[in-house]
Amino acid sequence: AKDEGRNQFRFHMAELDRQLRERMMLAADLHLAIERQEFELYYQPQVELESGRIVGLEALIRWNHPTRGLLLPTVFIPIAETTGSILPIGKWAIEQACRQIRLWRDQGVVPPLVAVNISAAQFKGESDLDRIVANSLARFGVAPCALELELTESVLMETTQKHKGSLERLRQLGVRLAIDDFGTGYSSMSYLRRFPFDRIKIDKSFIDDVATQNESIKIVRAIVTLAEGLGMSTIAEGVESADQVDKLRELGCDQIQGFFFSNPRPAGEIAGLLAQKLEG
Ligand code: C2E
Ligand code: CA
Ligand code: CA
Ligand code: CA
């Protein structure tokens, strides 16, 4: 039995060692991935329930790794946040979103607004986010109202006076702000009072059982009422079924995003999608 325990321990250490090596290798690769042009933005449509029309696209980063294939952000963004690579990656994402809006325009495609994710480490570590955004918009001739930044509650929780200034300058610029994963952090209400958001993204965890569970229904209804009172719109994240769509419509939620309408797609597939409408 003692041997068995020792073997398990060895196995455990070997596994930890493997994971650490893996992280270190990815961290080193991340460093070079921008100049090697290995990142790509996928876009997931956001649909207005009343009209059935696509009113926005969330940009979601992907890494075309030379040996590991397509990597999702949940694998590499946390590593990028600890190594500092998140700053150049985040800047790249903003630039790429603006470049893409320009490309669509030039092709005669009028894209709705594009939303870019800003992680907490990026927001904290970046001293001039508003300048980066302003420069990217100007460089590609994109109207500020075509761009939205998605911030999570964890970003706002750690927001200092300096960062509040940055948010205010972004607002003055005319860029839209959304609060992501709403309801998962604590004291969400105080952020709503302190920061002017255009849109509240209701976290998937409430949407998962909104068609079946009474508590989730009540929470979503409360969030929608709150948003209405504050003049913000609501979007439900991770919508996968027609039952959820029906319930969300009944609850007065403005928009939906999720696999039910479309998963995130490469930019090249978006023009075709924009012509589609949600049925019902
Ligand atoms: P998020 O901002 O909450 O993005 C929503 C995630 O849910 C995306 O995962 C999306 O593909 C997924 N999703 C959308 N609809 C459904 C659905 O109906 N069902 C299910 N099960 N999932 C759905 P993804 O693309 O893997 O991104 C994960 C997270 O990585 C994002 O969560 C965001 O926090 C972060 N992320 C993505 N792109 C960027 C980026 O450019 N910069 C930063 N800083 N973070 C990013
Ligand atoms: Ca998001
Ligand atoms: Ca989210
Ligand atoms: Ca989420």
Automatic annotation (TrEMBL):
Residues 23-278 form the EAL domain. This is EAL domain-containing protein. The chain holds residues 469 to 748 of 765 of the full protein.
